[in-house]
Amino acid sequence: xxxxxxxxxxxxxxxxxxxxxxxxxxxxxxxxxxxxxxxxxxxxxxxxxxxxxxxxxxxxxxxxxxxxxxxxxxxxxxxxxxxxxxxxxxxxxxxxxxxxxxxxxxxxxxxxxxxxxxxxxxxxxxxxxxxxxxxxxxxxxxxxxxxxxxxxxxxxxxxxxxxxxxxxxxxxxxxxxxxxxxxxxxxxxxxxxxxxxxxxxxxxxxxxxxxxxxxxxxxxxxxxxxxxxxxxxxxxxxxxxxxxxxxxxxxxxxxxxxxxxxxxxxx
Amino acid sequence: xxxxxxxxxxxxxxxxxxxxxxxxxxxxxxxxxxxxxxxxxxxxxxxxxxxxxxxxxxxxxxxxxxxxxxxxxxxxxxxxxxxxxxxxxxxxxxxxxxxxxxxxxxxxxxxxxxxxxxxxxxxxxxxxxxxxxxxxxxxxxxxxxxxxxxxxxxxxxxxxxxxxxxxxxxxxxxxxxxxxxxxxxxxxxxxxxxxxxxxxxxxxxxxxxxxxxxxxxxxxxxxxxxxxxxxxxxxxxxxxxxxxxxxxxxxxxxxxxxxx
Lengths: 267, 260
Known about the structure:
The structure holds 2 protein chains of 2 kinds.
Chain A: H1 3-15, H2 19-47, H3 55-67, H4 69-72, H5 79-87, H6 90-95, H7 100-127, H8 142-173, H9 179-191, H10 202-210, H11 218-225, H12 230-260
Chain B: H1 2-15, H2 19-47, H3 55-75, H4 77-80, H5 82-87, H6 91-96, H7 101-108, H8 115-129, H9 138-169, H10 177-187, H11 196-205, H12 208-211, H13 213-219, H14 227-232, H15 236-254
Helix pairs in contact in B: 1-7, 2-8, 3-8, 3-9, 9-13, 9-15
């Protein structure tokens, strides 16, 4: 087995050890999902059902967001990587015969996969059976479900490529705060984490469509409910892969630059 | 009390040693909840309103809850970070000193970067208070401050309760985040839009309703009953604080050192 795959497996198994944290996460996510849906129920009660999304679609959007929370949140901070940079551990990493970008990418991927493996099934099992309007509806069709899985996975790869820039920025700033945090917050907003993209005002939706963030959250979830049709979904997955290629290439280039002038901290 | 202010000034000075980092974090704290508020605003723009509530009325409740939360996070940070104190065994040192444990834990940590968050809440409160729906009188202003103070007490109570559980579990209980972060997310909207059982739980067990929704009715002139009752409602938070402190005291007696 080659190195990145072995690392992926190892990290995945490590991640599975944190079961108590996952149980707490499940309960929290469940509570947040319920609260958000109740808020939307109230909004729809006031304004009537004629909206860009039905209440059922919004509920599915919110539950998927809670179920796959660890897949989609931009700010899944791995302090180990920060410490590598600020603590000088980077020197050891550089001695090893592998490509640093790939290794870090795999580490982040494994952390998200294992966190999700522990959380997604319990939440999904409950919310699929909740009564209307709080429950998660079934996918629009079998094809929609398959496309959703593909879009979700592509979105996952994309999220990690984006979050990699946060880690890379630490090479220059030495602390993961301030302006970087702002980018993460804006990114989550434009991804549809705060409110679904179709419910934003027009001008804001246009900005969201220009940025890569919405491909990670908004797009897969709307494929699930059939809000985005099959044809458009296939084109969309193509779009996701293009963004992925661009961001990974940019990330590698930036890391190359960072490493050329890296200062090993600490002693 | 003198001791507490002494703690406060020392912690403030020590955090000011890293001035750039402090300012950056403050700015970050200003903008992070901003996206949440933007979300609320856009939802109101899309849907026009909530049943029985306009945007400005909701924003008033939102401002109160977030203000209370950030003040509590700033000053009750010691209880927030309490698990670390227990895990490292540092709590032993607090016990041998001839002062109360609550004051010492409160003074062990404060997070002044939350000023950014307070500022943001203040801006929201300003926007809401300038709205067309409220005729302000001195009594209403007093009620508003009572609401914020009551909210701070409620959040502090939850923090103390969460910290108390550490005496038994050693590890912090993340589930309690439901009541701090979750309570904040929930109470930022008027409580009566939720299902009945949720509203009841968060009014009678954890009195968020008593510090936000009900006194808000008085400020908006929607009371039916004696005004004084609505005005005094935030005092219910003290009723909540008492059992929390009791659990804390029982916990302290139960404490076994973990350190070396």
